[in-house]
Amino acid sequence: MNPTVEAREINFILGTQETQPILANPKMLEYSGVVPGEWKLAQTPIKADNLLSLEFENRTGIVVQPHLIAFQEIIKGKSIDTMQIPDVTSKYVMAMPNLGYQQMFTKIIGHVPYIGKPLAPVRYINQTLLTSGEWMEFGKAEVESAVIFRYRLETSTLHLTVNQGTYRTGDEEIIPIVAFFAEFHHDISAETTAEIQQKILQAIESWQINFKIYTDLINQKFLTPDKNQKKTHGFSFN
C-alpha cells in the first residue's frame, strides 16, 4: 500500500501596508466579533517586540506582527466540516477592510511518516526527486536535500517545498518524515479596497479546493510509483 500525506495544519496569512491594530490591542478580535466569545486561550498570550501569539483551546491560533497576521488551525484529527479558522479569517478581513492588504497566501503543512525507517526520508528525496551524480556522494554521510517546486494554477501560484525531518509524537517518540510545505499565493491586486477585499474573501473560500489540490498532488504524483522509475522508489526504502 502506498503511503499518503498527513495534513497537519492550515494557515491564512495576510500582509498589510498599515500596522496591525491587533498588535497593540488584542481585545479588538473579540470586540469586533472576529473571534467568538466562547473561545478560551490555551495559555497566556506570548508578547515580544513586534510579535503577539495567541493560542486557543480548540487548536487554533493567531500570530501578529506589525505588517502581517496569520490565522492557524491544526487539521490533524478534525473533520473538514468543523474547521473554524477560515470563517474567522473572513470575519477579520470584513472587520478590517482598510489596512492596505498587499499579499495573501494559504499555507498547508503536512508530512509522510516513515516509522522505523530513519534513512527513508533523505533517500526518498535524493533518489526519487533528484538526479544521481557525484555531487550526491560528497561528504561523510548522505547529503540532506530540500526541493522547491513552483506550479502555476488557475487562481494562484503554488510553492511546494519538500524536505526531510523528524516529528515528535505526544509520547515523545521521534518519527522520520518527508515534510511537504505548500503555499498558495493568491493575486489580490485590484483598483479599489472593496475589490481587494472581495478577492481575499474568494481566496479564503477556496481553501477546500486548495486542500484537495495539495493532497491529490502529493498522493497521486509524489507518492504513487512511476512505472518508468527504478523500483527503489521512496516509499520502499529501509
Question: What can you see in these coordinates?
Answer:
The chain is α+β, with helices and mostly antiparallel strands and 238 residues long. The chain has one domain. It contains five helices and nine strands; from the N terminus they run βαββββαβαβββαα. A nine-stranded antiparallel sheet has the order 2-3-4-5-1-6-9-8-7, covered by helices on one side. α2 packs antiparallel against α4. The longest helix is centred in the last third of the chain and has 16 residues. The radius of gyration is 20 Å and the shape is globular. The C terminus is likely disordered.
Question: Top keywords for this entry?
Answer:
single chain, 238 residues, alpha+beta, nine-stranded antiparallel β-sheet, 5 helices, 9 strands, 33% strand
- What structural class is derived from the secondary structure elements? alpha+beta
Reading the helices and strands in chain order gives EHEEEEHEHEEEHH
Largest sheet: 9 strands, antiparallel
Mean pLDDT: 91
What is the total tally of β strands?
9
Instruction: Provide the spatial order of strands within the biggest beta sheet.
Output: 2-3-4-5-1-6-9-8-7
